[in-house]
Specification:
Low-confidence stretches of chain C: none
Order of helices and strands of chain C: EEEHEEHEHHHHHEHEHEEHHEEH
Strand content of chain B: under 5%
Distance between the termini of chain B: 10 Å
CATH topology of chain B: MetI-like fold
Oligomer: heterotrimer
Mean pLDDT of chain C: 85
Number of helices of chain B: 13
Number of strands of chain B: 0
Chains: A mainly alpha (303), B mainly alpha (319), C alpha/beta (320)
CATH class of the domain at 2-89 and 174-180 and 204-256 and 267-319 in chain C: Alpha Beta
Structural class of chain B: mainly alpha
Strand content of chain C: 15-25%
Order of helices and strands of chain B: HHHHHHHHHHHHH
Largest interface: A-B, 42 and 49 residues
Strand order of the largest sheet of chain C: 6-7-8-3-9-10-12-11
Largest sheet of chain B: none
CATH architecture of chain B: Orthogonal Bundle
CATH superfamily of chain B: MetI-like
Number of strands of chain C: 12
Low-confidence stretches of chain B: none
Radius of gyration of chain B: 24 Å
Number of domains of chain B: 1
């Protein structure tokens, strides 16, 4: 007796067509929404500026990381002698240290995220695509790991195998993939159940082709969003380890190292703490605003 | 409900084993042992020492011996400080860490939850923007940055609170002597709490907004209930579910944060012993502390699961 | 005097892509003892019309017009006064009872709340009345169900609980929004008979929002057809079925499969899709899908009498 039964069928065909049209303009649509988001665009600008300075900042200064000047220990920022951010307690120019630290922090943030991304996506997609008991066992394992203070395992790893930058980023990457795996698995499961994927299966399309054409494009949105949120998390983890003296070692420096040294010279040279702390916070803000902006842009339902 | 609780408990036990096993294996695959630093020691002495600490036995046997003792709460003597047992070290550090961690977590839940719900109910108002600002700041400024900044402001500049001591110094303790015992914990608790406040405020705000859009809230309003009753009876519980499930990870976060906070404020908690132990390769200390920390996290997860079961009637049936 | 008189009701929602016209210029009256059917596709504004009258429009919506109930305008009434009417003299029950009942509260308690808020009765007294009402709506094992949670109910039982909730205070106007959607045919029939018996045993007005013409035919005295946020036809149920004047109503009736239908023949469908409420066409919203559309349909047709107690918003019906 339902009135629109026949009509619904026709409508669904139309909606299918509409969805295809939408599919083509989805990315353009998302970009438009993202560009309109003022917080996110501010984030992009600040982050762009910080990255730019990380590349050329140290070159602008007449000093280098190796210049330790006893006559200019713990000097406040000043224009006159070109110590724009002042000097630290060994007389090293803070401007140079801060931007060199930015290189290390940002690089580690990106590289560790790459490691987390590969592990998380592989693990999550495998669990989601195979499904059933394998999926249950795999996700149970993730649940168990999720509940643990995994940073401690990084600390143990780092002390056990020595303090070495490659180990640090590998360890961080190996620990921070859990959420990524959950997201990818959830999306894969959801997409796998969609009629068009079942239809593709039924039509005999090979599994890799289904993955490439149907699963990956649908999983990519949430993954991009999570990547922008993971980079700052990983930067924080590195800073945390460096703060404890377990991360980046001399002669390299990072924001965590600088903040840790700044924390020890609070009374004599507060700028040593404040300047790297502000840069770290700005980076965190920017990534989070960009992440939120991307989420809103890619998923209009979310407010 | 009882069987649900039992099932949860059964999941918790292997988790603890996994933790003990994982950290044990990691520590023992280490290149170099705890006696490396004393290069002057005779090989025979080292061998005796290794035998005394069972380090000469096969790894599996060492683990079984270790796990058996750990069950009885014995973690053996510290390698670096042989006059103190790990249990003693934990016993000195635990109360400090517990006081710090529990206070921070409780306050973070109360403050974060309240802020988030106020933000959601007064959406897009000045109060909401204030809440979002706090949330954003808490996420962008981690404990190890916040702690020195707080010290700079309240300790160095204002001289209000004591710096890196358990003594009740600073002008606040002088003006209000009864605050004495709490004063040294104020800054550590704030530093540890703020990131959690931020996460919880964000979670509860988003959850409340989502719940308020649910059909059953419309039903409750259509029944003619006061807005107050709609929020407290129909919306609040569902809005708190994400916060409750976050409490498990929050404990892990607080424990990790406590390590730096204890370090910065020189509080004699387990975190400091942990870092010292890790730097000195003091296996028994590090393992003992990891087990206590992980045990606390697993226990809290269990509590959270049970709490979730109480709050959400669906979970008890489905799982 | 009419029990409920709605005049020039408009509901607009703010959205990222400009305002959404959910309800436009809707006027009607509802009398005691009357059963009014509201028919239309989803998005036609049928639910929004009544949500607006009850002050339940979402926060990004703006409502204008008048909705006079028993001499008072619901739209300008102070919020607490309107709240006291809701659930008491004006009750609305919703479609999709899966999500319309609070998941973490026992069903009995959700029902008791209505009486405790509006009648100020004790919990014990409320319990007795709720159990009575559950029996009235033929809830099996009411005592036991009372203590259960919504997810432990079947769809039909949830809908019954929902109806019981609406009937508890013996409302003057009961608005049932798709009360039978997603239910088995047998359960549908039971739910409808509960509604029918309330209508027959009280002096209340019943509004039935549905897209199911079968439900309308069996229960209502009058039908209002809505399309694109506007009323396009308003007539007695008999007139609607016998002599529809709006091409949309006529098309709806043609789409209806009947027992006499030749199974070899295709079901009729209305070509095209319902209009996007953000981009309503100029003039008649049905124009783009109407097979009889003429140049004049580019100008908005208004509801005009086309017969005794029969109104339609179509230029063609006017001319005939």
């Amino acid at each position: 007796m339902t009135l629109f039964a026949a009509q619904t069928a026709a409508q669904e065909k139309l909606m299918g067509a509409a969805a295809r049209v939408q599919g083509r303009s989805l990315w353009a649509d998302a970009r438009r929404r993202f560009v309109k988001n003022r917080a996110a665009m501010t984030g992009v600008c600040i982050l762009g500026l910080i990255s730019f300075m990380a590349v050329i900042g140290p070159l602008l200064s007449p000093y280098t990381l190796e210049d330790l000047a006893w006559e200019s220990i713990s000097q406040a920022p000043s224009w006159a002698d070109k110590h724009w951010f002042g000097t630290d307690d060994t007389g090293r120019d803070l401007w140079v240290s801060v931007w060199s630290g930015a290189r290390v922090s940002l690089t580690i943030g990106l590289l560790t995220t790459l490691v987390s991304l590969s592990i998380g996506v592989t693990y999550g997609a495998t669990a989601g695509f195979i499904g059933g008991r394998t999926d249950m066992a795999m996700m149970r394992f993730v649940d168990v790991l999720y509940a643990l203070p995994l940073l401690f395992f990084i600390i143990i790893l780092v002390t056990v195998f020595g303090r070495n930058i490659y180990l640090v980023f590998l360890a961080i990457g190996c620990v921070e993939w859990l959420t990524m795996a959950r997201i990818v698995r959830g999306q894969t499961l959801a997409v796998k159940k969609k009629e068009y994927v079942e239809a593709a299966h039924a039509a005999g399309v090979a599994t890799p082709a289904i993955l490439r054409r149907h699963i990956i494009p649908n999983v990519i949105g949430p993954v991009i969003v999570y990547v922008t949120l993971l980079v700052p998390i990983n930067i924080l983890v590195e800073s945390y380890l460096s703060f404890l003296g377990l991360g980046v070692q001399e002669p390299l420096t990072s924001w965590g190292v600088l903040i840790s040294r700044g924390a020890n010279t609070l009374e004599t040279a507060p700028w040593m703490l404040i300047i790297p702390a502000i840069l770290l916070a700005l980076t965190m803000f920017s990534f989070n605003f960009i992440g939120d902006g991307l989420r809103d842009a890619l998923d209009p339902k979310e407010r | 409900m009882t069987s649900y609780a039992l099932r949860r408990l059964l999941i918790a036990i292997p988790t603890v084993f996994l933790i003990v096993g994982l950290s044990f294996v990691l520590m023992h695959t280490a290149p170099g042992g705890p006696f490396d630093a004393d290069a002057a020691l005779e090989p025979a002495v080292v061998a005796n020492l290794r035998a005394a600490y069972d380090l000469d036995k096969p790894l599996l046997e060492q683990f079984v011996i270790y796990a058996g003792r750990a069950m009885r709460g014995e973690f053996g003597p510290s390698i670096v400080y042989p006059d103190r047992t790990v249990t003693q070290i934990i016993a000195t550090g635990l109360p400090v860490s517990l006081r710090l961690g529990l206070t921070a977590l409780t306050l973070a839940t109360l403050i974060g939850g309240t802020l988030g719900i106020v933000g959601a109910l007064k959406r897009n108002s000045a109060a909401d923007y204030a809440v979002m600002t706090v949330a954003m700041t808490g996420i962008a400024v981690p404990s190890f940055v916040l702690a020195p900044l707080l010290t700079l402001l309240f300790g160095v500049t204002l001289r209000l609170l004591p710096i890196a001591t358990l003594e009740p110094s600073g002008s606040l303790a002088r003006t209000y002597p009864w605050l004495g015992p709490y004063v040294p914990y104020i800054m550590p608790v704030i530093a540890l709490m703020l990131p959690q406040v931020a996460v919880i405020a964000r979670l509860s705000r988003a959850a409340m907004i989502e719940v308020l859009n649910q059909a059953y809230i419309r039903t409750a309003r259509a029944k003619g209930l006061t807005e107050n009753r709609v929020v407290t009876r129909h919306a609040l519980r569902a809005a708190l579910l994400p916060v409750v499930s976050y409490l498990g990870p929050a404990v892990a976060s607080v424990v990790t944060g406590a390590v730096v906070v204890e370090q910065i404020f020189q509080l004699p908690g387990m975190g400091r012993f942990f870092i010292q132990g890790a730097l000195n390769r003091d296996y028994p200390v590090v393992l003992g502390i990891v087990i206590v920390f992980a045990g606390a996290v697993v226990l809290m997860n269990l509590v959270v699961d049970l709490l979730y079961g109480v709050l959400d009637p669906k979970v008890r049936v489905d799982q | 005097m009419a029990l409920l008189e709605v005049e020039a009701l408009n509901v607009r929602f703010a959205s990222g892509d400009g305002p959404i016209a959910a309800v436009s210029d809707v006027s009607f009256t509802l009398n005691r003892g009357e059963c009014l059917g509201i028919v239309g596709e989803s998005g036609s504004g049928k639910s929004q019309t009544f949500l607006a009258a009850l002050g339940l429009t979402a926060s990004n919506g703006r409502v204008t017009g008048r909705a006079v109930f028993d001499g008072q305008d619901l739209l300008t009434m102070p919020a607490p006064a309107l709240r006291r009417l809701r659930g008491d003299r004006l009750a609305m029950i919703f479609q999709d009872s899966t999500t319309s009942l609070t998941p973490h509260m026992r069903v009995g308690k959700q029902l008791m709340e209505v009486l405790m808020v509006h009648r100020g009765v004790s919990a014990a007294a409320a319990r007795v009345q709720v159990l009575e009402m559950l029996t009235t709506v033929r809830m099996p094992e009411a005592e036991r169900r009372f203590e259960m949670y919504p997810h432990e109910f079947s769809g039909g039982m949830r809908q019954r609980a929902m109806i019981a909730m609406g009937l508890l205070c013996k409302p003057d106007v009961l608005i049932a929004d798709e009360p039978t959607t997603a239910l088995d045919v047998t359960v549908q029939a039971q739910i409808l008979s509960v509604l029918r018996s309330y209508k027959e045993n009280s002096n209340a007005a019943l509004v039935l929002i549905t897209h199911d013409l079968g439900v309308v035919a069996g229960l209502t005295d009058r039908v209002m057809v809505m399309y694109g946020g506007r009323v396009v036809e308003d007539a007695s149920t008999a007139q609607i079925f016998a002599a529809p004047r709006h091409p949309y109503t006529a098309a709806l009736l043609r789409c209806r499969p009947s027992l006499a239908h030749d199974p070899e023949q295709d079901l009729v469908a209305i070509p095209g899709a319902p209009p996007d409420p953000r981009r309503l066409p100029q003039g008649c919203a049905f124009g783009p899908r109407c097979e009889k559309a003429v140049a004049r349909c580019g100008a908005m047709p208004h509801l005009k009498p086309v017969g005794p107690a029969h109104e339609a918003a179509c230029h063609l019906a006017e001319m005939a």
